[in-house]
């Protein structure tokens, strides 16, 4: 299976509307999750570039769909966070309309990485994403982020609990952008999706 050079990732473009997205060809994986779940931090850790994706302690900093290019017409996508972002309601509704359109119409979307804080149960928006992925049969992989905040035993307990509550078609792992925990497992999932292999 091809191993992608994630360190070569480069910012490609930002899109506020679907017509601003790059050409719908090749393969891309989107990172989604509640505001402040750690999407940008995960992308920066994956690519070993501290400032590739913008991070902030203020939820809702990522307000556009941001595309990052990889070799062989592959892309990583950083989606706006959903949930309690400190943004006006009309803007929040605007994001959700365009994100729904992106999920439903983007042919090059080969998988979703759903980031969820390991210390908290899944929220309604997370559950909505899980149901949507099952309905559309888009592969979904859950990253239980900020795992470094828990002991190893507590990490495994949380992981087991999530696994029991998810369908067999959805995979889940622990992850920490701070320590790099789970980075190799994440790369394996991405490599499989972006190359279209099941191995």
Can you describe what's shown?
It is built from five helices and seven strands. The protein has about 200 residues and is of the alpha/beta class. The protein has one domain (about 5-195): P-loop containing nucleotide triphosphate hydrolases (Rossmann fold, 3-Layer(aba) Sandwich), CATH 3.40.50.300. Strands 1-3-4-2-5-6-7 form a seven-stranded mixed β-sheet, with helices on both faces. A hairpin with a 3-residue loop joins strand 3 and strand 4. It is globular and about 45 Å long. The N and C termini lie close together (about 5 Å).
Put the structure in a nutshell.
The chain has 199 residues and is of the alpha/beta class. Helix content is 33%, strand content 22%.
User: Pairing-aware structural class of the strands and helices?
Assistant: alpha/beta
How many helices?
5
Give the overall pLDDT as a whole number.
87
- The structural domain count equals 1
Overall number of strands: 7
State the separation between the terminal residues, measured CA to CA.
7 Å
Let me know the CATH homologous superfamily. P-loop containing nucleotide triphosphate hydrolases
Kindly report the CATH topology. Answer: Rossmann fold
Q: What is the overall silhouette?
A: globular
**Strand order within the widest beta sheet:** 1-3-4-2-5-6-7
Order of helices and strands: EEHEEHEHEHEH
Low-confidence stretches: 57-61
What's the main sheet like?
A: 7 strands, mixed
């Amino acid at each position: 299976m091809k191993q992608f050079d994630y360190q070569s990732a480069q910012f490609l473009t930002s899109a506020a509307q679907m017509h601003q997205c790059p050409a719908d060809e090749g393969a891309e994986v989107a990172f989604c999750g509640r505001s402040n779940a750690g999407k940008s931090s995960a992308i920066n850790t994956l690519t070993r570039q501290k400032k590739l994706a913008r991070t902030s302690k203020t939820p809702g900093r990522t307000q556009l769909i941001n595309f990052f290019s990889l070799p062989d017409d592959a892309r990583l996508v950083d989606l706006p966070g959903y949930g309690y972002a400190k943004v006006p309601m009309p803007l929040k509704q605007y994001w959700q309309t365009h994100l729904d359109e992106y999920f439903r119409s983007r042919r090059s979307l080969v998988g979703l990485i759903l980031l969820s804080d390991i210390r908290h149960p899944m929220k309604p928006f997370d559950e909505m994403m899980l149901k949507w992925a099952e309905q559309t049969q888009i592969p979904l992989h859950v990253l239980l982020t900020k795992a470094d905040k828990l002991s190893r035993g507590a990490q495994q307990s949380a992981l087991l609990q999530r696994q029991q509550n998810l369908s067999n078609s959805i995979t889940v792992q622990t992850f920490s952008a701070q320590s790099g925990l789970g980075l190799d497992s994440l790369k394996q999932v991405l490599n499989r999706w972006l190359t279209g292999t099941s191995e």
